[in-house]
Design brief:
With about 290 residues, this protein is α/β, with parallel strands linked by helices. The chain has 10 helices and 9 strands.
Amino acid sequence: MAQSKNAVVTGGASGMGLEMARHIVERGGKALIVDMDRDALKLAASELGENALPVETDVSQESDVEAMADQAFEQLGRVDLVFANAGLQFDAPLIEATPQEFDLQYGTNVKGSWMTARAFARRWIDRGEQGRICFTGSEHSFGFQHDGAGLYTGTKHAVLGLADVMRREMPESVGISVFCPGLVNTGFYASREKAGLEEDSEALRKGEKLMARGMPASKAAGVAVEGAIMGEWLIMTHAVAREGAKERWDEIEDAFKRQAPPGSDDANYKVTELKKQIGSEDPPPR
């Protein structure tokens, strides 16, 4: 039998989150499914059975996240994995996007993911327990994939950056993964409706048609769950996403070669080394 784990899944009432929870339950574990949509939560819990426990939470609100984290340990007893998966996406050219759309996407995708990770990491450390946080990034975390998703792309760059720093700050008992899927067949394109914004029916129709051609959500979610259990740092699903990452790296490498080549005085400015030097110069506290 596959190794059973207890997990918390934000954005767990639909799409990839629901499938992540399903994989956890099918492995013999328990899943706390976290979402803002009360009706979807009820349906998901009914579908997955008694080992799926619904919790209504707005991950963009600190008090909600903290209460949810406490509830997770109370109901699950042991929390092995946390999938910081809740997210929103509103496609629009950047010059047409609105501050409200910015705040909603960054509030959920970035702040919500960070607060979720922080809440569980703190509790694992305080309790002397181990666990792993799996952030949901995206193919957009690594480079340009397609136009019209500028704000969303920014949030997924931010998620990767936060996770990369966090994995270096955490003790060995707290692991960090970033799941970076490409196009997946979910209802994710209906984010505007879920966030209470006016929906463009024609844009929604085209978006849903596009999403329907994506990888099955169960397949992508299975890769995420397996990767997190195996302790992977980066978890990939779509080989085509490499094109955007390579294009970004080629531009970075070219800029370094022309503007800041190796062998210059760059070693004098390495912050990690400078911090060590400063630490050795300062007298020990009395």
